[in-house]
């Protein structure tokens, strides 16, 4: 089980922090399958614009991960989380405005992009802050377990948020779905308010952000390759089902999230026990198999099984590589390093939507998952290369 011992009373903060992250991250999960359907169905735009609408949150996060990590290091992780939750709420409100403009496609889409930008900023500050806060509570020796719990909260939210978002879209419209997503971060802000933070490092010497990235970029690239498969499911799985007139289009993220959380809960200790690179190589192989299964599926059950396998495979890659990254930098650079590391995942999420949306318009939705499988296969090769290099250095 991916659990943190609670002998230290300070560690009792961690379960509440993780629960708060789950609740707040629903504001990201609820719009994820709804945005492409709203953009293509109600605004009448094509899949490339739908992919841009989905990916804008993650593209924005790429540019703001560095400042988010710096804020966490200088002023404390709690300050970063609080700022992120406020941005989440404001982004939800702006996206609500897009739902009220559905009869005017261009203003509606531009407003939606503004809301997605704010959501991306919130994702940077809240995500980096929660990770740094959790590691500060549990200690760097349990980095893999903390990242496993954080990921279980995020992808657990994605698992239930997707169907909730589609149900809200059907019964309350896009504006109603965005109204619900705007309220949830406010509840999260109330939950963290009484929690004690961790000590910042305002005076410590800091190398440039580029210098920090130079230490970790290969590990980040592995996470980037992993993220393509998830982004494909998040942006296009529902449209893939609808194009084939299959039922249960909203269950793709549920299947993915179920596999993801199951793996984190049962095997969350593995990176700390046997090393991150070995776990990443095996996980990426499973993800590749899942993506190829979705691509080749001839019925919805097989496609959902492929989404579940993708979740199993994606699950342990971020904590595996995050564990390696945390041990490559001193404590006062931890937030900055995690911010830069996470930006690679954002890069995958942000670019996959518009790029494979362009591909889907010309080669069909199945081609999206073929690309995801190939990227995961490349990640396997890179993980094994880094592991061999590590063994050669210690020999």
UniProtKB/TrEMBL annotation:
<feature type="transmembrane region" description="Helical">
    <location>
        <begin position="274"/>
        <end position="295"/>
    </location>
</feature>
<feature type="transmembrane region" description="Helical">
    <location>
        <begin position="113"/>
        <end position="135"/>
    </location>
</feature>
<comment type="similarity">
    <text>Belongs to the major facilitator superfamily. YfcJ family.</text>
</comment>
<dbReference type="Pfam" id="PF07690">
    <property type="entry name" value="MFS_1"/>
</dbReference>
<feature type="transmembrane region" description="Helical">
    <location>
        <begin position="80"/>
        <end position="101"/>
    </location>
</feature>
<dbReference type="InterPro" id="IPR050171">
    <property type="entry name" value="MFS_Transporters"/>
</dbReference>
<keyword id="KW-1133">Transmembrane helix</keyword>
<feature type="transmembrane region" description="Helical">
    <location>
        <begin position="147"/>
        <end position="168"/>
    </location>
</feature>
<keyword id="KW-0812">Transmembrane</keyword>
<dbReference type="GO" id="GO:0022857">
    <property type="term" value="F:transmembrane transporter activity"/>
</dbReference>
<dbReference type="GO" id="GO:0005886">
    <property type="term" value="C:plasma membrane"/>
</dbReference>
<feature type="transmembrane region" description="Helical">
    <location>
        <begin position="363"/>
        <end position="386"/>
    </location>
</feature>
<keyword id="KW-0472">Membrane</keyword>
<dbReference type="InterPro" id="IPR011701">
    <property type="entry name" value="MFS"/>
</dbReference>
<feature type="transmembrane region" description="Helical">
    <location>
        <begin position="301"/>
        <end position="321"/>
    </location>
</feature>
<feature type="transmembrane region" description="Helical">
    <location>
        <begin position="248"/>
        <end position="267"/>
    </location>
</feature>
<feature type="transmembrane region" description="Helical">
    <location>
        <begin position="333"/>
        <end position="351"/>
    </location>
</feature>
<dbReference type="InterPro" id="IPR037541">
    <property type="entry name" value="MFS_YfcJ"/>
</dbReference>
<feature type="transmembrane region" description="Helical">
    <location>
        <begin position="216"/>
        <end position="242"/>
    </location>
</feature>
<keyword id="KW-1003">Cell membrane</keyword>
<protein>
    <recommendedName>
        <fullName>Uncharacterized MFS-type transporter FBZ92_104133</fullName>
    </recommendedName>
</protein>
<keyword id="KW-0813">Transport</keyword>
<dbReference type="InterPro" id="IPR020846">
    <property type="entry name" value="MFS_dom"/>
</dbReference>
<feature type="transmembrane region" description="Helical">
    <location>
        <begin position="48"/>
        <end position="68"/>
    </location>
</feature>
<dbReference type="InterPro" id="IPR036259">
    <property type="entry name" value="MFS_trans_sf"/>
</dbReference>
<keyword id="KW-0997">Cell inner membrane</keyword>
<feature type="domain" description="Major facilitator superfamily (MFS) profile">
    <location>
        <begin position="13"/>
        <end position="391"/>
    </location>
</feature>
<feature type="transmembrane region" description="Helical">
    <location>
        <begin position="174"/>
        <end position="196"/>
    </location>
</feature>
């Amino acid at each position: 089980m991916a659990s943190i011992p609670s002998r230290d009373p300070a560690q009792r903060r961690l379960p509440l922090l993780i629960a708060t992250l789950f609740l707040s991250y629903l504001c990201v999960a609820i719009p994820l399958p709804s945005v492409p359907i709203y953009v293509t169905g109600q605004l009448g735009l094509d899949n490339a614009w739908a992919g841009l609408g989905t990916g804008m949150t993650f593209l924005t996060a790429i540019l703001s991960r560095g400042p988010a990590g710096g804020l966490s290091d200088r002023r404390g992780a709690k300050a970063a989380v609080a700022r992120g939750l406020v941005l989440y709420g404001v982004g939800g409100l702006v996206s609500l405005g897009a739902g009220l403009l559905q009869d005017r496609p261009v203003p509606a889409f531009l407003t939606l992009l503004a809301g997605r930008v704010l959501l991306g900023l919130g994702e940077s500050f809240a995500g980096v802050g929660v990770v740094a806060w959790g590691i500060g509570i549990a200690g760097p020796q349990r980095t893999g377990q903390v990242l496993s719990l954080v990921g279980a909260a995020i992808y657990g939210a994605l698992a239930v948020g997707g169907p909730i978002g589609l149900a809200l879209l059907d019964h309350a419209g896009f504006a109603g779905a965005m109204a619900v997503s705007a309220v949830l971060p406010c509840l999260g802000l109330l939950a963290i308010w009484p929690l004690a933070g961790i000590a910042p490092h305002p005076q410590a010497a800091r190398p440039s952000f580029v210098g920090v990235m130079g230490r970790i970029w290969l590990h980040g690239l592995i996470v980037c390759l992993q993220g393509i498969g998830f982004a494909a499911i998040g942006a296009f799985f529902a449209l893939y089902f609808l194009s084939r007139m299959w039922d249960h289009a909203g269950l793709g993220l549920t299947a993915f999230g179920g596999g993801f959380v199951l793996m984190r809960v049962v095997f969350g200790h593995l990176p700390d026990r046997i090393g991150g690179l070995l776990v990443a190589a095996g996980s990426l192989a499973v993800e590749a198999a899942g993506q190829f299964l979705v691509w080749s599926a001839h019925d919805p059950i097989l496609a959902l099984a492929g989404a579940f396998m993708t979740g199993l495979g994606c699950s342990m890659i971020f904590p595996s590589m995050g564990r390696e990254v945390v041990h490559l930098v001193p404590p006062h650079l931890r937030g900055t390093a995690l911010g830069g590391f996470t930006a690679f995942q954002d890069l995958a999420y942000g670019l996959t939507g518009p790029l494979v949306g362009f591909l889907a318009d010309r080669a069909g939705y199945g081609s999206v998952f073929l690309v995801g499988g190939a990227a995961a296969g490349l990640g396997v090769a890179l993980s094994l290369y880094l592991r061999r290099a590590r063994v050669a250095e210690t020999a």
